Amino acid sequence: NAGVTQTPKFRVLKTGQSMTLLCAQDMNHEYMYWYRQDPGMGLRLIHYSVGEGTTAKGEVPDGYNVSRLKKQNFLLGLESAAPSQTSVYFCASSDPRGLNTEAFFGQGTRLTVV
Amino acid sequence: DQQVKQNSPSLSVQEGRISILNCDYTNSMFDYFLWYKKYPAEGPTFLISISSIKDKNEDGRFTVFLNKSAKHLSLHIVPSQPGDSAVYFCAPSNTGFQKLVFGTGTRLLVSP
Predict the structure, then answer these.
(1) How many beta carbons lie within 10 A of that of residue A36, not counting itself?
(2) DSSP alpha helices (H): ranges in chain A?
(3) How far apart are alpha carbons A43 and A26 in whole angstroms?
(4) Interface touch B105/A42, C-beta < 8 Å
(5) Segment B41-73, tens digit of pLDDT
(6) A29: chain B residues, CB-CB within 8 Å
(7) Residue A80 and residue A23 in contact, taking contact as beta carbons nearer than 8 Å
(8) How far is residue B4's CA from residue A109's CA, in Å, rounded to a whole number?
(9) pLDDT tens string A40-76
(10) Alpha-carbon span A74 to A91, nearest angstrom
(11) Does residue B1 have a pLDDT over 60?
């Protein structure tokens, strides 16, 4: 029962570097989400996807890009990292067809941009 | 556009007492409300939910109350235990609502 798996768990980047965070789910969920968590700000939605090949902007999309080429994977890209992107990133997935629309989260990726 | 607000960033309670966490929302289209619990260095996990057709849902020590007219919900934990110390997020949703948004969270500390 892997659920939602995020890779990597930790990363330190220099300003201007790029990287991709990978999220994989094995529950056949249609919806997937990327959030960032910052002190006092809660969980803020970056981008989300309601199905393979579709993506949409959330509350704080600037500086990030996403792709959902396969239903089970949702990638979050940082093309040119900035110190303001230092955060903990969480991926989640959910199934909108059920009565209970709870989301399942990964363990998080702690990213530091120096 | 902050649709979900948890106005208490933190709450301290003694073991055995009641913990009450509050959440306010603005979008009247929400018809399903979830609470998540988050421990440090872990992802949030689902705790309890309530449908808008109810005003109360109970699961063991956890009860969620919904006041639709006031657009307010609360989570009661009775009795509180040290293991309940975590950050709690409320997350309103509705059928067909694609975005999943969260409140800012309330950090609960239950002391022995």
Answers:
(1) 24
(2) none
(3) 23
(4) yes
(5) 899 999 999 999 999 999 999 999 999 999 999
(6) none
(7) no
(8) 24
(9) 788 999 999 999 999 999 999 999 999 999 999 999 9
(10) 8
(11) no
